[in-house]
RNA polymerase sigma-70 region 2 domain-containing protein (Thalassospira alkalitolerans), 202 residues
Amino acid sequence: MTLPISQETVHSPDWQALKKGLLGYVHKRVPERDCDDVVADILEAIIRHRAKLQHSDNPSAWIYAIAKNKITDHFRKTARRHNNLKDAMNDPTFNVADQQINKDDIMSISGLAICLSPLIAGMDRQDRLILKAIDLEEMRQTDYAAHHGIILPTVKSRIQRARQRLRNRLLACCPDGSAQPNQNCAQGCGPENQCGGDGNVI
């Protein structure tokens, strides 16, 4: 089942940036022919679990977990046609962009920079720097503090605020997939919001 998404969301710069980043992330990990389907699965999962994002302390890790799970699901499905997951991952004919799939890279959070960089690029410089270094490149907070000549408590405070702002951007561009019939959608029903009147965005 594919969740409906409003045209306002589809054309949201942040939503498009997230989708673009996911395409780049997935393209390096699954066969090109399957990229769109896997990205669609990831986006649908983000919508379905939007409520959990509201309580996430680290939205980058939250997105990564969903992407990793959906990519793993893809290979599990593929494994049924290759006898088992190990054979599927090691099949020399299973190529991405003329390179054999690296099963370790699939589980590597470092590649998440491809996924979230387009979205983070729209944030303030200070937020961009700290999110990229700590959440995407996995730099230790102590190293970040030493490199920038600031004390550790300041780093902890800045990364916390940056993560909150990233989470807010994700929530703002992500449609609410939990709406039930006969309930008002989060944006309010009306033609301008592409709402069908039953609480579901169309």
